[in-house]
Amino acid sequence: MWRETRKDLRIREKCPENPSVIYRCKQASFRKLGELQLIRMQVRLVPIDRENHRAMWRLTLKPEQQGFVSPPAWSLARCFVKVFGDRFEHLPHLIYADNEPIGFSTIVCDPASAEDYWIDDIMIDEHQQGRGYGRAAVIESIKLILRRYPRCRAIQLTCFRANTNAAALYLSLGFALTGDNDPVFNEPNYKLSGPALDNFREA
Ligand SMILES: CC(C)(COP(=O)(O)OP(=O)(O)OC[C@H]1O[C@@H](n2cnc3c(N)ncnc32)[C@H](O)[C@@H]1OP(=O)(O)O)[C@@H](O)C(=O)NCCC(=O)NCCS
User: Are 126 and 65 in the same domain?
Assistant: First the structure.
């Protein structure tokens, strides 16, 4: 696992505008150069519709990751039937890097609430992982929620105990364990709130 070095910390300090999207490139070709490469990963969240939905079916995960999120078709069906209830908006998005769909996220929010804002599912295609897209996509999901829902004071998600890579990502962005478990999966919930959430608010 990549660990932040003192040099990385100094670089983060020099990039105060949004240090979390500064990503140390781990691609082998860059590593061979023996240099620290910083790249700013850019992703877009695009609502899933009849034009683009087929791209969702082509997204795949490694076998050991498949239990961590719903399969794409199931995730979309959960949104269609409004599985969390009518008071929630269920928003499925494709995640694009350049013009290529590389993952999906589903956001489930109660606009009248203060804290019922959830990243329900998020995944990056197995062939695109480890390049900073997951971090960028979680940040874009957070920003989308904050832009769309002015009442939002917390963003929550469930992350399976076995999913240590995703948990490391969420903790690094400021999410904290709530101490509660998801009632269906009995897996821990995480919450981003207070100053950690305010870091992502746009002026
Ligand atoms: C979790 C997931 C979205 C991360 O996407 P990604 O594009 O691979 O992640 P990134 O390259 O942006 O890495 C972000 C952080 O994730 C963690 N991480 C990702 N891959 C890792 C690995 N192989 N080993 C250790 N940590 C890893 C690290 O904390 C990393 O931060 P760092 O780059 O500063 O070390 C992706 O692995 C995925 O789709 N997993 C399967 C589905 C899933 O688990 N979804 C989350 C459900 S809660």
Answer: yes
Q: Whole domain around residue 51: which residue ranges?
A: 41-198
Atom of ligand 1 nearest to the CA of 103: 39
The answer to whether residues 131 and 95 belong to one domain is yes
Asked if residue 95 has its Cβ within 6 Å of ligand 1, the reply is no
Between the alpha carbon of residue 26 and those of residues 34, 92, 182, the distances in Å are 11, 29, 33
Half-sphere exposure of 70 (CA within 13 A, CB side): 19
Regarding whether 72 and 11 lie in a shared domain, the answer is no
122 lines ligand 1 (CB under 6 A): yes
Looking at the 3D structure of the chain, how many domains does it have?
2
89-120 tens-digit pLDDT? 999 999 999 999 999 999 999 999 999 999 99
Q: 41 CB under 6 A from ligand 1?
A: no
CB atoms within 10 A of CB 40: 11
Provide the pLDDT confidence category of residue 41 given band limits of 50, 70 and 90: confident
82 shares a domain with 61: yes
Using the mean position of ligand 1's atoms as its centre, give its distance from the Cα of residue 87 in Å. Answer: 31
Q: What are the beta bridge partners of residue 101?
A: 96
> Has residue 203 been placed in a domain?
no
Using the atom order of ligand 1, give the atom closest to the CA of residue 157: 48
